[in-house]
Design a protein that fits this description.
By secondary structure, the chain is α+β, with helices and mostly antiparallel strands. It is about 20% helix and about 25% strand.
């Protein structure tokens, strides 16, 4: 299979397309044929060795970046009951580990995936995972978004 491998930390010139072995799956994993993946700030920070995650990934050869994918399940492990071969799925996979999203196929724990809505393209789905999580964290953790809001609980000054 084809993959974009990071040969050494640094700039984009260190990302090289290579032919490598297609991954095998474990009993709790599925193999996804990747239709789209996205590139996020965390990918750039890891590539530049400016994120703590880079140190744990330095041991891998080949090192394949990326965590956000959308694709089609082509194999399923023996313990898989939540999805099936042929399902279109998307997710942020193997984070914060070795994601391996910049590849034709990715072995993924099934619980890292969701069924892709029919009205969403693979490109849109792959672009939504980390971005959506970041937005949710901003609203929930930092903005303290709650299901009900009462203006009487807040005081405004002129």
């Amino acid at each position: 299979m084809k993959a974009i491998v990071l040969e050494q930390f640094g700039g984009t010139e260190h990302l090289v397309e290579k032919e490598i072995e297609k991954p095998g799956i474990k009993d709790h994993e599925v193999l996804v044929k990747v239709k789209a993946f996205s590139i996020n700030p965390v990918d750039v920070k890891v590539r530049g060795r400016k994120a703590p995650l880079a140190e744990s990934l330095a041991q891998y050869n080949p090192l394949i970046l990326g965590w956000d994918i959308s694709g089609v399940i082509v194999e399923a492990g023996s313990e898989i009951t939540s999805c099936k071969i042929g399902d279109e799925v998307f997710g942020m996979v193997n984070f914060a580990g070795h994601g391996k999203a910049y590849a034709e196929y990715v072995a993924v724990p099934a619980e890292h995936l969701a069924v892709k809505p029919k009205n969403v393209t693979h490109t849109e789905a792959a672009a939504s995972t980390l971005a959506a999580l970041t937005a949710w964290q901003a609203f929930d953790s930092y903005g303290k978004l709650r299901s009900t809001y009462s203006i009487k609980d807040h005081h405004f000054e002129k």
